[in-house]
Specification:
289 residues, YerB-like fold
Length: 289
Amino acid sequence: MPGHKPGLQQAYMVYEIIAEGGETRLMAMFKGANAEKIGPVRSARHYFLDYAMENDAIYAHFGESPQAASDIKKFSINEIDGIAEDGTTFRRVKDKAAPHNAVTDIAKLIESAKNKKFRMTSNKESVLNYVVDEVNLKEGQGAISVTIPHSQLQTVKYVYDAENKVYARYARGKEQKDWDTKQIVTTKNIIITFCDNYTLTDKENKGRQGLKNIGTFDGYYITNGRAIKIKCTKNARDEQTTYKDLEGNEINVNDGNTFVNICPTNAKVVIEEPEPEQEPSVETPEAVN
């Protein structure tokens, strides 16, 4: 589509976390972007608020779980709820069925935020330590593909494109493509955090999940075809996560977008190394009499 600016690809960070039924949901973070179609926008889950808070973000959603509704008030989160809006910020499209057809765009979200008199700038430091010089990991292992089974239902795979130095994203064995442009979604950086989810014992009994994300957890940082083991520490729900290598140094992160995949500690993540280069064979010369 000429002039179309795809939504997910413009996000500087995308968090993927389990939801009910083994599904995952994506929370995309935008800053200085002008995406013209973002969606489908779904209802809020309370543990996604933790990562909205650490990025000092305005939280846009379309409905909410009871736990999310309670925590939005508890933490005084600036929110834009499509269910409560007047129908101008979010819209329904016809090429997908409800509830997977609610969309919005950056311009409409900014307009709504200004009308609500939300703060539009932040003094908070970035969660990730981005650097100008290209990060080429020397330790760790090669990573030409990364497979992350979030659940029996949802497996994500990233495949390295060495020419463009990005990873193409696949979900359930298929390329994940932009809704309109059909371009495959790519990412410069991948962070994996191993922490467990659990089923809530609430009265609605809908299988909604909680997340044990306070503490220090194992993980990986993956970029430019290599992966290193890291430690991911979050000390409180509204505090920023720190990502450090095994020597205790905060990792430097390549400029570009980042997917943060939060998966169970028993997930059998597979990081595939490139095939070793073979020495060229040389034929043994035959003696000539």
